[in-house]
Every structure is written in structure tokens, then in C-alpha cells.
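Handoff note, outgoing to incoming analyst
You'll be picking up this chain. Sequence as last confirmed:
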Amino acid sequence: MENKRPYFKMYIIAVLMCSYTGLTFGQNKTNIHNQVQFVFDRLISVYGSAKTEPKFKIVKKEKAPIPPAKYISEGQPTIQIDEAFYKICQTFGKDSLNALAIVLSHELTHHFNDHTFCRDYGFADLNTVKPNLKKTIGSASSNARKDKETEADIKGFFFAAAAGFEPHGLQEKLITKIYKVYNLENIQENYPSLQERIDLAQSADKKASELYNDFKNGLVALENKQYDVAIKCFESANGKIPFRENLNNIGVAKARKALLLKVKTREEYEYPDRFLYPLEIENKSRLAQETTRSNNDRAQQMTELLLSAQKDFQEAIRLDPKFTKGYINLACVYELLGNPEGAIGKIKELLLEKQKTNDAQRILAIAYYHSDSKKKADEIWRELKM
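Most recent structure output, in case you need it:
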């Protein structure tokens, strides 16, 4: 994660969470919409996908069967939240938003993973599927639907935690209340029993917790400059859930490790702040240049790490073409590989407002300097007061 202080971001999220979680879940529709919107936006921000986000809609229905939450894939993709489910979340007190995040994230996983025959928080209700979709679904087995629900549970938990919520340990109580209020065991034969649904969720919760621990441990290792450990942690999580931030973090760890092998130029010694790559935590903390490796070995290892990081950043951008950090990090890699023109071009692909951010301007100045456009570089450095 291209972030000097990964925990600062998590702290800000925690502050926001506390401020919202402390609110009483009122019956005012504006309050309901704002609180669902808050959770929805936080979750969308971490999914990081090129696929257009769905809309969400709060509905109030009187007749059963009514799913607490439902993903509608046909037409305009939409996630529906039933008002009665919102009231269930209200009973969780300080965990109200966490409970809401569990189900919203579950439905978002259906959307971003194209689970078109998993439509609600349980199993697909084939009796409500349009005739033209029944043929597509065919005789989708109960096991196939169970696999999709399990995937939605695991990824839903993971992304909810990555967004700053605390979903773990709530599932049994949440599912029990949902089954009781919505009478789900009697809604259709395709639904799992209450205990089956709890067992599925708890198993997924355990797997998601393990993945999220890898993610957190990777952040700690990255902060402590233990780059090999960070790479291993992020790759472990990413092997199970390919995730924009994981890919970016892997690339950052590799690029920062490569920077330890870089021999400083005279200009970097004279103006360390000017040549501070946005990838780095602190330029001055780079390891001393003395080493038993030859310069050729160092250069080869550095190049290999950077080329590998380049692939990670490119994949992160493929998953989310709007991922600003990915473009800036990729520009750093191009610059370090001796391609300042490529770095400049990558920054120019960003929206104009994103090009003006400090990190984008920093790498742009370095790239201009190394492409013999020193006047442009000096103008940026003066603007940044470097």
C-alpha cells in the first residue's frame, strides 16, 4: 500500500466508524439512507474493480417471502436492502454498522464476482427467477449455489474487515435473527437450515480471518521495512483473494526492496527531499551503499524486483483503472528502470486533478529531471517547496 503510515488510514477509518456507530439507528428515512450509504461507500472503496458499482435501494415490503438483502443482476445491477433488516441491525448497538457491512459486503461479492444465480442472503430462490434466466441457470445444483454463498461469505468478511469494519464473530447472532424474522427455514426447500447456514458462515469467517491477518501482518512488515516478509504475507492473501490493494502492496514491497539496492547519485545526496520517491517511507533511511555484492549483481537484482513490481501495479490498475496510487507507483517503477518518459506518460493518464497531487508531482519532477527537462523539474520542486 503506497502509504507512509498504513495505520494512519486505519485510524481515520476507526474514528469515522466510531462517530457513525455511536449514532442511534433512527426511523427517519434520510438517516437510514445516509448510514447505509456510508457503509456501502466504504465497502466499494476497497473492492477496487473495473466493473461499475451497483446501485443500492432500500425497500419496504409487506408480503413474504422477503429476503433481507438481495442482489439483482439483470438490467441495472442493484442491491436491495429491506427496512426490516435495517431494524435487525439496530438491535446490535455498537455493532450495528458491522452487522450491516456483513450483508452488504456479501451482496457486493455476488455483484463483483458475477454470481448471477445467487440473488439473496441465502440460496437463490429459483421460483422468483425470470423464465429467460431459468434456462441459463439450468439445474444449478445446491452444492454450486452453496459454493457461491461460501465465496460471498469469505470475500464479504475479508473486504468488510479491509474497509475498517469488524465483522468477525457476529455471524451466528445475525443469521439467527434473520432466520427468525424472515422465517427463512420455511420459505423454500432450497434454503439451508439455520444450523447449516451458521456452519457455512463460521467456516468462512475463520478463513477470512486468516486471510485478513496475512493482510495486516503484511502492513506491519511493510512499515518495519521487512520487505521479504511483507511480500510473503501479501502474496499469501492475494493467492486466495486477488485484491487491488494486495497487488499494490506486493509491488510497493518489491520496489522499496529494489530501492535499497540503488546507488545514490550526487544529486540525491545533495537534495534528498527532491529525489524522494513516493514509494519510500524515508529516503534517508535507505541502507548504506556498502555491500558484498558487486554493482552488477545489485543492478540485476534491482531490475528483476522492479520488473516484477511493474506487473503487480499493472494488474492492480487492470482491476481498477481509476486506482490513482497504482499509476503513481507504476510511474516510480518506470523512472527507476530508466524510462522517465514512460513515467511522465503514466502520470499524464491520470485525471488533471489527480496529476496535481503531491505524490504525482514528486515523481513527475524526478522524471522531468532525468529526461533533461530540468526547468520543468525545478518549477515543480519550487511549487512543492523542495
